[in-house]
Amino acid sequence: MIKKKGYLHKLPGQSKDYYRLLWTILVILFVISMMFQPSIAFEGAVMGLKTWWNIVFPSLLPFFIASEMLMSFGVVHFMGVLLEPVMRPLFNIPGTGSFVMAVGYSSGYPIAAMVTSKLRLQGLCTRVEAERMVSMCNNSSPLFMLVAVAVGMFHNPALGWIIAGAHYLSNLTLGFALRFYARHDTEHIPGPPPRSKGLISHAVSQALQVQRRDNRPLGKIMGDAVRNAVTNLLNIGGFIILFAVIIRLLTNAGCIGAMAGWLSIFLLPLGFSPEILPALASGFFEMAIGSQVTSETAVPLLQQVVAVGMILAWSGLSVHAQVAGMISETDIRMTPFIISRVAHSLLAGLYTYIIFQYYSPLEPAATATATAVECQNLSFTYLNLQIFGFFIISLITIISLGIILHLAGRVRLFGFRFK
Fold first, then answer.
1. Between the CA of residue 264 and those of 146, 302, 375, what are the distances in Å?
2. Model's pTM, two decimal places?
3. Cβ(133)–Cβ(125) below 8 Å
4. Phi/psi of residue 81, nearest 5 degrees
């Protein structure tokens, strides 16, 4: 401690020591809780493991592998050159951000953070641009919303389109707002070099340059992609299991109920039932478990859907920890991400409420209920469609925008010239 003008000033390292001491105490309490409640901890671990193995692992593994391979083949540089004139005026991010958006919107948490981290380490974006991409491109997986939540939890496929529509619409709204975040940042990454040929030809040449620099054979590229994907998914599984155990222990200790009481101060005046508050408190920690608890709560369907929309947009501390782990080797800050999750949660709840008023699925539960086998088959069907649709939509988007930009000449859009 340093005494100056009658005040005690803390050394910079001392505040970090206090945080380390706090985390040490929390970990000790966590271990003691598991020792005194081993059955509760085991049940939480089993729940987290089932969530990871049945939902997260099969839905994310193909995209993790594909994203690793596409980055090795120079597709990121190709899309960066091709879509720079679109991404910069709309979201104030480089063209390479289009690849982050593609994988983020199609595969879900936390793959966008992983890709953004790689772009930052390769010097393809500034820190502020990376923070914009991490904040706006981390979304819930369409497979999770359309199948796991709508069919598996609510037994009502029509709800998936309401939840997903509000989720992505609120995220795009957030993306447009984030273009003004730190807009006067002084860091600058040089743009693509001046081109003397067509836009598409220039983008292809950039991708070929990346492939020439990477001399690994195809087998090596595929092996590295699979190994990195499985490693990242194991880390994600560890976070999900950890927070599942924490939720069960906190529920047994009455902490979730106390947290629900705090939420009642803000949510009861908005018309939420007290019964839905424990589910929201669980979703504060882990979105999959919170969504499951919400679907089992005896409240009106509108409140259930709005609550799930807010939980998925917030994503839970489990996903926050996964994102923090993905960006830990970079200078990307977590504060913008957390603030954007709060804003996304509020917007998603509002948009879900509005959409539900105009499109309310009222089909009987008996006709909408699917058996376990049907849900499993539908899950794999959606997974295959998701993988196929991801590449088809990306290809069509790239070709269409490339042709439009190539023919547009010097047309202005939002005050920017394309050529």
1. 29, 18, 35
2. 0.75
3. yes
4. -70, -40
